[in-house]
Amino acid sequence: MERMGSVWFLLELAMCSAMVGMLVSVHGQDQNPAGFISIDCGAPNDYPDNRLRIHYKTDEEFIDSGKNAQISTDVIYDYKQSQSKNLRFFPTGSRNCYTLRPDQGKGNTYLIRASFYYGNYDNRNKTPAFDLHIGTDYWITVNSSDYHYKEIIHVPTTDTIQVCLINTGNGSPFISSLELRLVDSSIYQLSNLTSLSNAWRYDIGSSSDTTYRHPQDVYDRMWSGNSYDYVTINSTSTTGLSNNNDAYKVPAEVLKTAQKATDVNPYIYVSWSSNSTDEWCFYFHFAEIERLPTGQRREFTISVSDRLMDTVTLEYLKPVTVASQIVTGPKINFSIDATQQSGQHLPILNAIEIFTIVKHLNVPTAMDDITAINDIKKAYSINGSSWQGDPCVPADFIWKGLECSHDNPPRIVSLNLSSIPLRREVVSSISNLLALVSLDLSGSQLTGPVPEFLAKLPNLKFLNLSGNKLNGSIPESLQKKVDDQILQLRMEGNPDLCKKGLCKPKKKGKSILFTVIASASGSIVAMLMALAIVWRIKTTKRKGAQTTQPIKSKYRPFMYSEVLKITDNFKNVIGEGGFGKVYLGALASDTKVAIKLLSRTSKQGCKEFQAEAQLLMIVHHRNLVSLVGYCDDSEHMALIYEFMANGNLRKQLSNQSRGTHILTWRERLRIAIDVAQGLDYLHNGCKPPIVHRDLKTTNILLNESLQAKIADFGLSKAFAADNDTYISTQPAGTPGYLDPEFHSSGNLNRKSDVYSFGVILLELITGYPAVIKNADETMHVLHWVTPIVQRGDIQSIVDSQLDGEFNVNSAWKLLEVAMQCASTTAIQRPDISRVLAELKECWDIEMGLERSQRMGSSKIRSANSFEMTSTEIECDSLPDAR
Ligand SMILES: *[C@@H]1O[C@H](CO)[C@@H](O)[C@H](O)[C@H]1NC(C)=O
Ligand SMILES: *[C@@H]1O[C@H](CO)[C@@H](O)[C@H](O)[C@H]1NC(C)=O
Ligand SMILES: *[C@@H]1O[C@H](CO)[C@@H](O)[C@H](O)[C@H]1NC(C)=O
Ligand SMILES: *[C@@H]1O[C@H](CO)[C@@H](O)[C@H](O)[C@H]1NC(C)=O
Ligand SMILES: *[C@@H]1O[C@H](CO)[C@@H](O)[C@H](O)[C@H]1NC(C)=O
Ligand SMILES: *[C@@H]1O[C@H](CO)[C@@H](O)[C@H](O)[C@H]1NC(C)=O
Ligand SMILES: *[C@@H]1O[C@H](CO)[C@@H](O)[C@H](O)[C@H]1NC(C)=O
Ligand SMILES: *[C@@H]1O[C@H](CO)[C@@H](O)[C@H](O)[C@H]1NC(C)=O
Ligand SMILES: *[C@@H]1O[C@H](CO)[C@@H](O)[C@H](O)[C@H]1NC(C)=O
């Protein structure tokens, strides 16, 4: 073998291209062993590695992101492996995955090896650190500047295996090569719940600069030479060792050297300290390589961390492997001790493999959903940097535009490809996403008909196909779902739709939205009255005979002509909400008002508009935007509110307002308290409690003195008193603010509002929006903040526009509250009343008040001390007055 190697080497030196070509064709067969996938990441072309007798491919067909680079020429000859010279790095995307599809498929045992050599490819002399995932689970962290590799022995439960590089904020991940080897399933006993991550694989008794792998090792394991403080022994014959039927197939070259205990040290003992959470597993390989006198045998016991694993009797040149059980603890050791029967023959060790256990804890997305979404990805050539790996798992890496349930296994419940140029028909793979609740394909340049199969999605409740080039008519089955109010369908902006004879009369077909609104519509006043009566009855039951003013009288109905007048014919647009435009108006008394007009093409429909009106008539709190009046002419619907001079909080925080006023730390704190008070009132001051359902910084409005009020009750819903949860029948909320538990339960409850409030706090602290958008990736503010919190770096978290003008202790406190509120699970989130108390403490810290002399909480804003304007009884007395 040694001689063969040098011949190859000479030929390589000769390097005439004709010769290389010949070598490839002659040895092409040998160089692609069955069950091998060999990828030289970043390599410009495929090539045979003649030394290894393996044919390497470029990584093109295995990944669709990242960039190629060559390592620095200063170090390019440091390692002779060709695979060390190029790499692929991933400057964008938090998870980038290679997808391997071995011919043998799932349920087989594979050795997967990823190699890394930074080689200063980027001239920054800064080796990145990052994580590797195997499928949906953490495998290992990569952090070394040397050429090194990570190996795992794995039994996949799917036909594809994904190896993902995770950006942990310590530089762009990179990879030099990726190899997969099929291994006999009878060895390395694994369940589909665990894999073995290779820590060391030693060829005991060899010098440290020898490494055996393919072709000596048919599985291409890499055996590095290593010696302990024992005597090295060496066999003269290897032929016997290589003719074995043992499935482990440890190469004869590896087995032919060993170390033997000495008279001074009559046993072999090795120990090291370990992280107590790590679980270890060993494979000891032995073969007798000394000729013992007839009738004598070497015999010994093998113990790991004082647990006896096996007793072994060796026969000449016959390999034996002992697998250990799993051990754990702060110190790990193994010892090999001669038995009495062994006589003077001391124990030996030929080779050892030491693994740590990788557990597969995350349940991958349902297979049918994975297949369907990958078909969709392929059909539309979607190559977003986040569309890699498992679509839903882990939750931090969910594909952009997807939302998933927390079922076991997780399902895809929402797909949003809005504004992505798909440029072809609606593909049928979508109908295989059976758990889909919401589908947004608006503005995606879709062509062809509206397919019937969309009606077959059993759970679909929201479908937006507007702004496409769809033609034909709406299938009856789909229209029926709309008519039955099972499905909310948006189709506007498809000019070719419904022009043919099959279509309904033009009037009806022209605007589907109109029909939807018309059917849901009635008279706002009638509904409000009805609601008021119901509510009164309920309250009366609950509270006894308490009389109130009729609700209706408090709000003045406006004629449309009046609305025109006070807005000066809709002269000044001051905003645009889900309903439509918001206009500035002035009442006769010169009081400024904001007028929300329901637009026909609005995202939120008539129902939500009415819902908002209904609620606003019932709730009154100085931290809730109050209603002045409403208009419900047959054609027009409008709500008239108090005017909030400083617009919404998002605008105040965003860069757009740079140059104008930058909210100070104290102003931010006060805004936080204002919002918490408003929310506390809704949650704890109203019976039944009211869940806002769409709390976000664009729904927090600021008046001229920067007092914050919660607005936009369109999605709010009071729930039945006995049930703390509102079962949602349609998607609600806004991405970035939506309770991560929503999809498992479909419930939005008070704790969902607390989550949204946590996100708002993070925005107040950092100045960033809930979803931070960069050139080609988006990141939730929570994910941005979390690692920095762990580093304890408050200065990097707080909005840089503040120039460090804040009290560090109050900042920490506020951050802590924000993180609690934004906990993934509802149970970890505090009630808003608790949050409010914490915020008040935070205020006291900011004001330098000691605990003992802290002011009464209601005095925080003395100029605005609490006053309940309402005489309605639906909401109890002021919670803040308690
Ligand atoms: C990487 O290793 C270096 C040196 O051992 C260490 O200082 C650094 O903290 C490590 N980085 C990570 C992210 O583990
Ligand atoms: C994992 O192994 C168990 C027991 O061997 C088997 O019942 C189960 O189906 C396997 N799971 C998968 C996803 O293959
Ligand atoms: C093993 O023995 C051979 C021949 O006797 C010798 O050339 C070689 O150096 C020895 N190897 C070791 C590791 O002692
Ligand atoms: C042990 O490993 C766990 C998980 O990798 C890590 O969180 C912990 O800090 C480690 N402990 C020690 C003592 O290194
Ligand atoms: C080997 O490890 C076990 C378990 O950690 C420990 O109890 C024992 O003392 C160790 N043996 C020696 C010789 O240190
Ligand atoms: C994906 O990438 C291919 C080639 O890089 C490009 O042609 C295609 O337009 C991209 N698709 C999308 C949806 O961005
Ligand atoms: C889909 O995404 C777009 C922008 O990414 C957003 O405007 C739209 O509201 C989303 N649709 C749904 C139903 O959430
Ligand atoms: C719809 O458009 C497709 C091309 O996009 C065309 O082939 C088809 O005939 C059209 N169908 C109708 C009913 O107009
Ligand atoms: C549907 O999509 C259109 C175009 O993107 C958008 O204007 C509209 O607001 C969406 N409707 C809903 C209800 O999300």
From TrEMBL:
Superkingdom classification of source: Eukaryota
EC number: 2.7.11.1
Signal peptide: 1-18
Enzyme class: transferase
Residue intervals passing through the bilayer: 512-535
Matches recorded under Pfam families: LRR_1, Malectin_like, PK_Tyr_Ser-Thr
Localization per Swiss-Prot or TrEMBL: Membrane
GO CC, alphabetical: membrane
Any one Gene Ontology molecular-function term assigned to this protein's record: protein serine/threonine kinase activity
Chief location: membrane
Location of the Protein kinase domain: 568-847
Protein name: non-specific serine/threonine protein kinase
UniProt lineage: Eukaryota, Viridiplantae, Streptophyta, Embryophyta, Tracheophyta
Designated gene of the protein: LOC116198744
